[in-house]
Amino acid sequence: MLDIEIVRKCYPDRGGRSHIALADLRLQVQPGEFVCVVGPSGCGKSTLLNVVGGLDHDVSGRVTLDGSPLQDGIGFMFQEPRLMPWLTVIENVLLVAGDDPTAPARARDLLQAMELGDVLDAYPGRLSGGMQRRVALARAFVIEPRVLLMDEPFVSLDAPTADRLRAMLVSLWQRCNTSVLFVTHDLREALALGGRVCFMSGAPGRVMLEWREGLSGPRLPNDAAVLALQRELLDRHPALLAGLLDQSGNAGQGRAQGRNNIEVRTDA
Ligand SMILES: Nc1ncnc2c1ncn2[C@@H]1O[C@H](COP(=O)(O)OP(=O)(O)OP(=O)(O)O)[C@@H](O)[C@H]1O
């Protein structure tokens, strides 16, 4: 089990005083569980992933996997695909695999599954945005991660491309039994993908609500069951709705972006 206990994570701010980004944050993720994290802009979601992934050690707290410090076996996918322009598609995927002799065959299989078999030797500059994200997805899975950290990986893609990538992610996740921590601003995406959705408070960020009554399996965000689930969540936690929408917002308006920037889409 992935066990995250962050007592405090501070950043120095410009005036020399420290800004408390995270405080008293506790979160556990079971093996193979898909957990989504939703929260206002600036509440510390990226900071949380950086701490969990070991990119930021300047923190009071601990992150363990099955009781030992989490050190390797961590896959990442960020908002930007972060591909090296001077490396080919397959070289980009293999970049994270070290000298594992089984990685090249796995990279090829993953890229075939991502429908990128024809562009293994192409450079990222030749690829569309959606193709670049598929390369990033293959790179995240090539090490067969025990923990996969995803920071709004499908943001700013058109809806069909994002849906296709979500379906590919779900299929890889089901094959690998990886524990996923997936940050998103989009409530419907969170409910569609996550077996559990954790809502973070404003700064300093902590988990203030866990919604465990997810669907029987992942769906696409436009699925009617997701819309019904969102309605149920907002009916049962009206205070959450008040936080999600701005003062003039209305859950019936189709698409609302609250003052804290969580996106609640209620259109079909
Ligand atoms: N390197 C840094 N130095 C100083 N402050 C930082 C640094 N990184 C983040 N912060 C601050 O910490 C807080 C949390 O930032 P973080 O990026 O983790 O939030 P977030 O929830 O991911 O935001 P968003 O949803 O807008 O991406 C913010 O107030 C941010 O300004």
TrEMBL record:
InterPro entries linked to this entry: AAA+_ATPase (IPR003593), ABC_transporter-like_ATP-bd (IPR003439), ABC_transporter-like_CS (IPR017871), ABC_transporter_ATP-bind (IPR050166), P-loop_NTPase (IPR027417)
Protein's UniProt keywords contain Membrane: yes
Gene3D superfamilies recorded: P-loop containing nucleotide triphosphate hydrolases (3.40.50.300)
Family annotation (Pfam families): ABC_tran
Domain ABC transporter, residue spans: 2-227
GO function terms (MF aspect): ATP binding; ATP hydrolysis activity
Keyword DNA-binding tagged: no
Keywords assigned: ATP-binding, Cell membrane, Membrane, Nucleotide-binding, Transport
Regions annotated as coiled coil: none
PANTHER family: ALIPHATIC SULFONATES IMPORT ATP-BINDING PROTEIN SSUB 2, TAURINE IMPORT ATP-BINDING PROTEIN-RELATED
Family in the record: Belongs to the ABC transporter superfamily.
Name by which UniProt lists this protein: ABC transporter
Species whose genome carries this gene: Parazoarcus communis
